[in-house]
Give the backbone structure.
Amino acid sequence: MTFANPLFLILLALLPAFMIWHKKWQRKPYIQFSKTKELQNIKKHTNLFTMLQNYLPYLILAILILALARPQTNLEIKEVKSEGISIITALDVSGSMAAEDLLPNRLIAAKKTIESFINKRNLDQIGLIIFGSAAYTQCPLTLDYSLLNNLLSKVEIGAAGQETAIGMAIATALNRLKESKTKNKILILVTDGENNKGKISPLNAAQLAQTLGIKIYCIGIGKKGGAPIPYNHPNFGKQYYKDPYGRPLLTRLDEETLKQIANITNGDYFRAENIKELEQIYKKIDALEKTVVKTKTYNNTKEHFPKLLTLLLGLFILNTLLKIKQTRTLP
């Protein structure tokens, strides 16, 4: 609470001293008697009526001083406006994502990191595209993160084919993002391979993203030099793909193309050789792409002066009635 005229509060502080002075020096009524012996047996009574008579004027004076000081309450009203971001993750589910350089394999490591990223966001529309030989919408843009995480958990190796269509993945994501009305739109592309399928080239898709104002963050997964690709043999269990000469087939990441995609769309390229690096990359993206929150503050002053005047009027009326009713009697 604040006061518009705080100097009047000095009078309020001096009020106790005034009460003492007034009680000491006020003129007391008296009656002349030839004898006062009979008066000595009169008992003094102090009741609520007497207390009101004695102290009500001081209370009125105190409230009057307080009213002159004009107490006020400043009410702060905040208007918060937020604008979320539309985010789509395009996740590679081709056969090479079964490589085990990220434990237990690349796809499972990516799914866990993406889920953690989703759970840290709020107010953002997030969707999921999976791609291999083709690209599909696993979950459209949504604010229902529990639904999104549930659909993410069901993603499996080879769900969209064994090859890699990066251009088709970008194009599918752009079709979803262009429908969003949010100002900021980003695509997070997670892959461990090179484009070897699809009718749209990755760079042409990136040019389209740049035209639409959509930023692409590219994440390349896998250790440098590649890793062997496991598969389940119906008779011998887990085996690894080999070339015609019996040598293990290793994954190959096209970093140059991913860097160009990021550069064209004003995004960024990251390389994750292990799960810790992948987690750090998602933390960086989380820090770079923050939801915009705008706050406007309004101050509203509430005056308590009128209420004090109403109280003063009531006390004046009560004081007047007490004076009218005041009587003195002697036996």
